[in-house]
Amino acid sequence: xxxxxxxxxxxxxxxxxxxxxxxxxxxxxxxxxxxxxxxxxxxxxxxxxxxxxxxxxxxxxxxxxxxxxxxxxxxxxxxxxxxxxxxxxxxxxxxxxxxxxxxxxxxxxxxxxxxxxxxxxxxxxxxxxxxxxxxxxxxxxxxxxxxxxxxxxxxxxxxxxxxxxxxxxxxxxxxxxxxxxxxxxxxxxxxxxxxxxxxxxxxxxxxxxxxxxxxxxxxxxxxxxxxxxxxxxxxxxxxxxxxxxxxxxxxxxxxxxxxxxxxxxxxxxxxxxxxxxxxxxxxxxxxxxxxxxxxxxxxxxxxxxxxxxxxxxxxxxxxxxxxxxxxxxxxxxxxxxxxxxxxxxxxxxxxxxxxxxxxxxxxxxxxxxxxxxxxxxxxxxxxxxxxxxxxxxxxxxxxxxxxxxxxxxxxxxxxxxxxxxxxxxxxxxxxxx
Length: 433
Prior knowledge:
Layout: H1 20-31, E1 38-42, H2 49-62, E2 68-73, H3 84-97, H4 102-120, H5 122-131, H6 149-161, H7 164-189, E3 197-202, H8 209-220, E4 228-234, H9 236-247, H10 254-261, E5 264-267, H11 273-287, H12 312-326, H13 338-350, H14 352-358, H15 363-370, H16 376-379, H17 391-394, H18 397-408, H19 413-428
Parallel strand pairs: 1-4, 1-5, 2-3, 3-4
Helix pairs in contact: 1-2, 3-4, 4-5, 4-7, 6-7, 8-9, 9-10, 11-12, 12-13, 13-14, 13-19, 15-19
């Protein structure tokens, strides 16, 4: 059972949206010989990327061709800008558990760690060591093997004096590190029932722009290693913006950069009321599990046709807030329909800045906001002018569509404004602005 409604689901039977078919397709590709070494799992905020990764782990348990799937939460290591240190720690622990002698992999791991030291910089790697409990290079000998002083001296000399031979040696070290990493992967897979390692990177888009890009850089040298697939779950809009912030748009924008990194991409299927009405109802029932709410919204056509709105996490958050409103002593017995109440809550979770502009328990204020979304001919019939709004709201076509579908096609604007004002009064009591 879930401890918290917003936690990722981990069991196939919790899959209200029937995405296990999508998960199976991803698993089949990961297990195939034709799968590239870098795969992108793309989805906007709240679409369920973390849940899909957890479901992938569960599906793998019953799959005929099993993989060794490991999930790393990039957000936990944001302060380090480095994903590779925790991955190396995991590899080292696995090799020890398998009884592989340190003499087989120790020197190679040292070179891999040195290359990470070189490509990311000493400070970043040391932060990464601290993050996984390594307080100094001296103590690292038991965990990753120590960083030799000679390498630090070469790095410093190459950086300060720009001696070509030293730079060439450091470049050679990076090439050797890729081969060493390949050797460690081969050792890990030797004699194991699974055919591949799958490193799943989650929550990269939660990190700050600079750190998110650093984390991508920390693994880029190892994206071509055989026997390993890197499955990166991100919001492509966020990461592409981060890349452009870091490198500028130039000739290659952020999306093209992602296409270069991820030749194989899976986009989480969007919800559709036409084809997913039953799944959405199941999602809301799950969100309201254990809460005695008898009233349910019924007219999904009224407000749920925009991808920005049809986001699982937004629907769940809205359902929970709806339940709080229904739990007030006197609420739904008033002249507020469940559909209007739910539409208003969804409006808040989708356009919070606009919601605050309209939020009022005064009918006249609500009406003056809604007048902005009427046709000029209809608006001319009202003596009061519309409340001035920033252009970004008026020009937002998704918001225009939502307001008209949710509020302006059901009854007269005076009645709708009064109902919204009354609903807002109750929403103020459960914490909405």
